[in-house]
Structure formats: C-alpha cells, structure tokens
Amino acid sequence: MADESRPTPGDEVMAEKRRCLWQAHLHRRIFELELERVEQILRHTEREALLPALGAASESGALAFAVLAGEVVLFSDPRFTEALGQPRAALQGADLPRLVSLMDEDCTAALRRVASGEARRDHCLGIVAARPGSDRHYELRVQRVTGPGEGASFVFLALFELIGDEPEGEAEEPGSDAVLDPGRMLQLVLDSIPVRVFWKDLRGRYLGCNALFARDAGKLHPEEVVGVDDFSLGWRDQAELYRADDFAVMRGQVEKLGYEEPQTTPDGRTIWLRTSKRPLRGSEGEVIGVLGTYEDITLQKRLAEESLHKEKLEAIGRLAGGVAHDFNNMLTAILGSLDLLEMSLEASKDTTELLEAIREASSRATDLTRQLLTFARKQIIEPKPIDPNDHIRRIERLLRRLLGEQITLEASLEEGAWTILVDPGQFEQLLVNLAVNARDAMPAGGTLTFETHNVVLDRWGNGLRSAGPYLQIVVRDTGEGVDLDTQQHIFEPFYTTKGERGGTGLGLAMCHGIVSQSGGFIELESRPGAGTTFEIYLPRHRGKTDAEDSEGEVPLERRGKETLLVVEDEPAVRKVCVATLEGQGYRVLEAGSVAEGLRVSLAFAGPIDLLLSDVILPDGKGPQLARELQAARPEMKVLFTSGYTEEISASDGSLAAGLHFLQKPYRTQELCEALARLLDE
Prior knowledge:
The chain is 40% helix and 22% strand. Helix 1 (9-44) packs antiparallel against helix 2 (47-60) and helix 10 (349-375) crosses helix 14 (507-517). It is α+β, with helices and mostly antiparallel strands.
C-alpha cells in the first residue's frame, strides 16, 4: 500500500512555487517601502540639501537607485552602479547616453520615455544587467518626481532584484500552509531588521550577518563577509578590542549588553555603536560562537554632547551676566564721579593726567563687562537687515591694518549673499574678534580668508540645529591650529591658549554670544599645524536691507527744566545720578525701591515728566513700577537703566517694543543725551 503521507512530485512543485512566491512577496514589499521613502525625499527636500539627504537614504537603506537632474546623473547609489557592472563612482555625473548604454533595449526605451516627458512612470520587465560572474537579475522602475523648488524635476530609477518566480498578472497572497526555505527566509527577515546583526565562530570568523552590517563593512552582500575576521574589515583598528569582547563572552558564557564602543568605517570616519553580545549555542547547549547586534548611536551621542555643552555655556553665561551686573553698577558710580570731579576741579596737567588714567582703566573694565554680557546674551541689541558682503568689505581696510603686513587677507564673497538680521555693530565685532584670533595664531604670518555662502541645512545629521536657509560665513586661517581638547573649551569665557602672549579669553566667547543671540550657531574645525576654520551660520532674513540710521548728538549744554523721578537701589549710583541731573537744571526726586518710588510719586502733587529707573530693584522690577505709576500719570515717560537686561529684552535679545533703555555703565554725557532725546520727542 502506498504511503499517502509521502509528498508526490506534484506536491513538491507546488511547495517550491509557494516558497518562491513568499520570498518574492516579502522582498517586493521591502522594495516598495524603500521606493516610497526616497520618493518623499525628492518631493520635499530643497535642492541644496538633496545630496546629503540622498546619501543618508543610501547608507541607511538597501535600495539600489539613481537620480537624474535633466539628463545628468545627480546621485547614484553604489548598489545601483555595481549592479550595472561598473565601479562604485562610475555613474556620478554621467549623462543619459552613458547610462542607457549599460541597459538592454527595453529598459533604454522605458528610461527615454520618462526622461523626455512622454510618460510619467514606466518599468522594464526584462533583465537590466547582471554583474560579471553573477546570476543576479534586476527589474528597472523609472518615474518622474517633482521637487519642492520651482521647476524642480527629477527622474528616479530603482533596481528590483528578482529572487524567485513571480507569476504574471495578479499575485495571490501566499497561503499559511506554504513550505518555506528557512535559510532564505531567515536572511530576508534579518535584512529587514533596523539594527546590525552578526554571528561568529569560536575563532572569531564571521558565519553570517544581515545587509546593514555588510554595508558597514563596505560589502554589497552578506555572503561577502562570511569567513573573514575583524582584522580583514574596515575597522581593523578596533579588531583587537572586538576579539577580546568576543572571547570574554564565549569563555565566560555571559551576556554583554548595551555597551558603547567606537568603529572605523571603510571611508576612515569614526562612529559610535551600542553593542550587545551573547554566547551562540549549538543544539546541545554548547557554545559554538558569539551572536551580536549593534546600532549606530553617533548622532545621539553628538546630540547629548552638544546639549551638555550648551547647558554648561548657559550656566557660565548666567554667572558672567551676574558678575557683569555688579561691576556695571560700580563702574557707573566711578565714571559719574569722575565726570563730576573733572567739572569741579580747576584744570592742571597733573590732575588731567590722573583723571585720564582713571578713565582709561574704567574704560577697559567697561569693555570687559560688555564682553561678558555679550557672551551671556544679556546685551541689548538692535538687529537690522544687512547685506553681509557690504559689511565685510566695509571693515576690510580696518582688518588689514589690524593684521599687519605679514598676513594676507583674502575674501571670496558669494554674489547675491542672503540678507541677515543682526546688530550691525555686533556683526562687525564678530569679524574683528575672529580676525584677531587668527592673527594671534599666525605669529610668523599666513593667510586669513573670509567667505560667504548661501546654504540650506536639512534635518539629517545636523544635531541640535534647525533646518532651513542660512548665510554661512567661513573664516579660515593657516595658523597653528588647536587640538580636540582645546576645541571643547574654546568658547568658554577666560579660556585662552595665548599663554604669556596674554589675552582675556573673552574674544571667542563674545563671538559665540553674538552668533547665538542672533539666532545662529558657530562651528570649529582645526588640527594642530593645519590651521583653523570657523563656520558661522546665521538665519536668512527675507526682507530688504535697511540703511543704518545715524542719530545726531545732543549737546550737553541743554538745560533741563523738567521733573524727574530717579529710582536706583545702589546708593553710590543714585547719588552720582542725582548730582549730575541737578547740575543740568532738572528737578530730581529720588527713591531706592519700588515701594519708595510709589510713596514719593503719591506725595508729590506736581507732574513727573520722566521716570529713570533701574530694571532690577530689591522689592520688584522697574517695568512693574513704571506700569503702576503710568496708570496715574499716563503722560510720564520712562527710561530704564541696568547692567543686566534680561527683564526688558525680547526673546531675540532686542529691546522690547515701546521701551527706552540706557546700558550701564554710562558716562554723564550719555545719560544727559538719552534724557534730552526722550523728553524732546
């Protein structure tokens, strides 16, 4: 009697057909998802950011594709190029005739129909190409994709590897009773996992891996990794470290989970991995090797480091801002007293020299506190739309004198550089500080280069940065360069590499503050002996540039007749301020707190023309006092003064709308001019 349980030849044929159908169905599903992902990148990515985005898609996916702009290959994935039997970089920049020369007649016709606009999409059911000595065959998909920019259009080509029989017409879903090839199905599943998977034997040789791991190893297919060890792959620098971990896991028969380690990529970059390894066991439970997985955490690690560094700088900035506030109060009293003393003393050579020495020292201290406030982003700014090229050209003559004859200054400015919204004075200070830093790094002479570029940053690989259009300013010198440890601290206040050559260590800290307060960011690239490059990114401003308004000086001889209320909690500052204003003819009421200011106003029956108030007071804030007083005296004008501006500045660091402000420390003439302008409005 025949054994009915034994499969017949017909059953085996059906099982084979179902197996092929399963494999083809899963493989095509993966292909369709990858196809959709790249198509979305083409539809929504600006042209300037397209190449990095396509590169990222190529690295993280398994799709063999190419993109044409016009009739030129804009991007070619290495898998696409090698599938056509060409070296990895052979198609980049190739024209359409070169591309079609590598395809058969049917696929050439499909590509030309889409490239000419005759068809929106097409595909070739025949064989595109096969690498020499390979039995891999491909189907070609071609479609036209419209990008986000005006007139942006691309031809998108993708190769689909045929791995099994696909019946013509509508393919039925594979049944649950299909007999599957476990080895092939396992590889398909592994290739679909978004982490790298590998396994090795007891000698550290690879037994298998998934497609993502093979790509990291610089290989096109997982089978190319089988039989080699870590010393034969791109990360040979870490091979000894990897081997030690493998043997520790195998001999100790313990897992090692979630640890971080470096890896050198085939192109020489260092990336960071989060790796897990466990013993690989045979059917009897014996250890036969090691099984591992890892994910690339380079971006997450960089984000965490940038966030930590940002928090550190913000903490230092808060400290610097507080110190500057206290110093500004003292300097205001010193400078005011100095002016009053100069007016009351009879002029003589000795007294004039002493007063000038005091004023010079006070002026240097004032510069230091202003630099601290700029770093801390507590300095009031007046942003205006400016043409960066105009300002660089305007300051070029000054920079040449500053740099000296030994240093060559070059400028390569992109025509039509985008407008930026910055404080013009701070922008020029930024350029001067970077030039001084470059000069000090080139004691024997060299070249300093300024460049401007219009760039669009995408959301791939940009850390904490916002995507969008930026003006990039590149400042490059041929000086001594700095090491990685120095780069970690270079924007911190009072950090200097000049040693005995001096320096306050505030120049680059000030640059960081200016750029941050203007909504941008600054990056540094340097190596010892290879010079330094600073890249500044400032957001594009869509408006037109404004001519800078120049305010004429108000002569100090203007005599006041108005009544002023001065509210200042620092006794020395208040005393000098009151004496100065009374000397100019004003009637002055004074108070040292919010409560006292309210009492003085309530007790005074006449009009108060102007309130001069510190921003930060012991029992409240100057703006709070101003609102309460103006409720009863709506005609009263207000001038705020402070050495610390956080409470009255807008989110971008500019003066909040409708407010008038005088930064401490100020000279007597600056105070009188500010009051006169406001009272005469």
